[in-house]
Amino acid sequence: MAVRLGVFLPEWACSLGDDMDSDQLFQGVFGFYQLIFGKNILENDMREKVVRSLVKHLIIKGADRLEDIHSIEDPREHDFEASPMVRLFVHRVAFRVKPMNKLITVTLTNFLTDNFFLPSVENLDALTYRLGAAAQLTYLTDASLMETSKKKAKPAQNQQTEGVRQLLSLLRDRLSELIQRDGKTIEMDNGSQAQSQINNEGLLSQVKRLIEFEEPTAFDE
After folding, report:
1. Where are the domains of the chain?
2. Looking at residue 22, what DSSP letter applies?
3. Which domain of life is it from (predicted)?
4. Using one digit for the tens of pLDDT, what is the confidence trace for 131-151?
């Protein structure tokens, strides 16, 4: 029951929109994760399943948000505002439940090393947004890089941690693969072929800046 609830919780919370900032919802969500990470009521693999569902929603919903605004914002900027979902599940809950936040980082690392970011859709812009969302999440889930108040977090002046540097290195690898596929015919997961084409080079520039990627000559202005 706890696993089913944990898998369903992020999707349900997303439907609440701005109501995710309510103290009542925070108390319920915080109490749930505090219970499953503070008591031996779930095996480690079940906790991993719950957090995997959360990270998947954070990335996919984050990518949808970036696509809506046609931009990949930098969370290191002081005027950056995290989404209600990140504020609730990461800054208000996971930063208080440290084993949960650690598992979020492990899960994000796993996503960046398995096939989660391999082409599975014809629109490579969508995959670029997904990488952008993962890059944002890399910064937003590191408590040492965020100064937190009751409901919001803002960038701190701390140096990047080793965990952040490792994730950024993985993101550079995934982005390099995406650039190499751009303009080529690739094999899709469903067996069909599609012409890979990133329509907005500005998206690539924004992701590269976010993960401190040194732009190749082809993208120099």
Report:
1. 2-212
2. -
3. Eukaryota
4. 899 999 999 999 887 665 445
